[in-house]
Specification:
By secondary structure, the protein is of the alpha+beta class. It is built from five helices and eleven strands, in the order βααβββββααβαββββ.
């Protein structure tokens, strides 16, 4: 089952150059996943009522170009499969009907109280109607996480109450904002960006350290909560 919709423009998603920002891409992906799940009977309220929730484990996105504010955005998402406690989801963003951004993600189905994976139910396999259509599947499935301990420079960022969501941790979109902050000197057009979520950041956290390492063909941005790696990002 493919889930498609025309996205209402949000002026806050665009930069001074009138182009869609990278963190807004993560926002659109998140909105699409939530809307698709709700459309097949699995809203956030439904999941929380059962004591379970989907947690994003890793995500990749590739933008051939970033749409400008004048263009109409249409979004497509679909499940490409479920496996025990994992869910695999793909995305496409079109500008005036032309695909400009593709994405792929892996989610973990978690018991909220126990913080442990739980198996997807047989009914969920049926309801999500997965499509055997891949975007970047081999890349995200085989992504070899880089060393987060080596870095060239670091910046400390104060966190805000608005950074945290109803799941009691820092929202996935905020990681995209931190990545963009650390890479303001880079143009993400034509690049593949991967985020590996390793550890949740709780509301009592006051600040994070964003560490940057430049390699021959990539940049590694590691977001640390104290001594704990929260998210590793790679720009290729």
């Amino acid at each position: 089952m493919f889930y498609d919709y025309i996205r209402t423009k949000d002026i806050s998603d665009y930069g001074a150059d009138k182009k869609l920002r990278f963190d807004a891409v993560l926002k659109i992906f998140q909105e699409a996943a939530v809307a698709h799940s709700a459309s097949v009977g699995y809203s956030a309220d439904t999941y929380m009522g059962r004591g379970n929730i989907w947690i994003l484990n890793r995500l990749m996105a590739h933008a051939e170009k970033f749409p400008d504010f004048a263009q109409e955005l249409s979004v497509r998402t679909w499940s490409r499969g479920l496996d025990r406690f994992k869910g695999f989801r793909n995305y496409e963003i079109r500008a005036d009907g032309e695909i400009c951004i593709k994405g792929s993600s892996i989610w973990l189905y978690i018991d909220i109280e126990r913080k442990r994976p739980v198996r997807v139910t047989p009914q969920m396999y049926e309801d999500y109607q997965s499509e055997n259509v891949c975007n970047m599947c081999s890349m995200i499935d085989g992504w070899d996480r880089k060393d987060a301990e080596k870095y060239d420079r670091s910046v400390r960022v104060q966190l805000r109450p608005a950074d945290f969501d109803i799941n009691g941790h820092m929202n996935n979109i905020r990681y995209g904002e931190l990545l963009s902050l650390a890479s303001s000197d880079m143009d993400f057009t034509g690049k593949t960006v991967g985020l590996f979520y390793n550890h949740e950041i709780k509301p009592e956290t006051e600040f994070v350290d964003v560490r940057i390492a430049d390699e021959d063909k990539s940049r590694i941005v590691s977001i640390f909560d104290g001594d704990t790696l929260a998210c590793l990002c790679e720009i290729i």
